[in-house]
Amino acid sequence: xxxxxxxxxxxxxxxxxxxxxxxxxxxxxxxxxxxxxxxxxxxxxxxxxxxxxxxxxxxxxxxxxxxxxxxxxxxxxxxxxxxxxxxxxxxxxxxxxxxxxxxxxxxxxxxxxxxxxxxxxxxxxxxxxxxxxxxxxxxxxxxxxxxxxxxxxxxxxxxxxxxxxxxxxxxxxxxxxxxxxxxxxxxxxxxxxxxxxxxxxxxxxxxxxxxxxxxxxxxxxxxxxxxxxxxxxxxxxxxxxxxxxxxxxxxxxxxxxxxxxxxxxxxxxxxxxxxxxxxxxxxxxxxxxxxxxxxxxxxxxxx
Length: 303
Known about the structure:
The protein is of the alpha+beta class. It folds into 2 domains: 151 residues, S-adenosyl-l-methionine hydroxide adenosyltransferase, N-terminal (Rossmann fold); 100 residues, Bacterial fluorinating enzyme like (Elongation Factor Tu (Ef-tu), domain 3), CATH 2.40.30. Strands 10, 11, 12, 13, 14, 15, 16, 17 and 18 form a 9-stranded mixed sheet that branches. Strands 4-3-5-7-6-8-9 form a 7-stranded mixed sheet. Strands 1-2 form a two-stranded antiparallel ribbon. A hairpin with a 5-residue loop joins strand 10 and strand 11. Helix 1 packs parallel to helix 4. It is elongated, with a radius of gyration of 26 Å.
């Protein structure tokens, strides 16, 4: 049982204990709060799904190395072996996380082959996964230049290393070691020749025509292009532009999906939450209407 005294004991500047009376105006000593320890944050992005043991095993290895790590699932529903889809999802998600976050991204059709394992430091965060282009978009245009490490210190791998499950045996323990304070230089060797996907940036001609492409189709059927406000600022849209994709023209633009439109046009352009221009249809799938797939060309020209 806790007993509280009506006359609290305080220490004077000499360190001696004195009784504080009810009417004593002497300021109470300040209690200094201990700084809250930072809990390491590790995210997971994979094509493993949730029906098998894979995701649980990765988390188990991380927690074995660092029991206080906090693990966040970005997604495990990336289409199987689809590195480009994973690269986009990682780019769209990583800016939502605080500095120091460690991202483990494993879509790895080349697991067990000669492809290297990487640790990348960029955007004030860390990225761990295979050297197959999955980190292309988060590295493109990053300032300062990304620091890239080939993970080759087997001391930090789970042993024995399975040739079919580097997510569990290489990437998970390395991410966990990093979260305990192990430095990148101890985990691997610096390199510069990592694998890159084709640039995510669209091509802009001198006349202002933009040749872009669809880089993602979300579950609602919205077609995400690689166009940003840098290529298509508001003043150009206000002057009138046409988007052409698969033989169809998109002239309308909206600020939000349910906005009342002056025209009857089904298709419209809208700036999506990832910062890219999307082609959408209210409450329907633009991808189905356009018969679109990732990689389809999108051209933009002034009306």
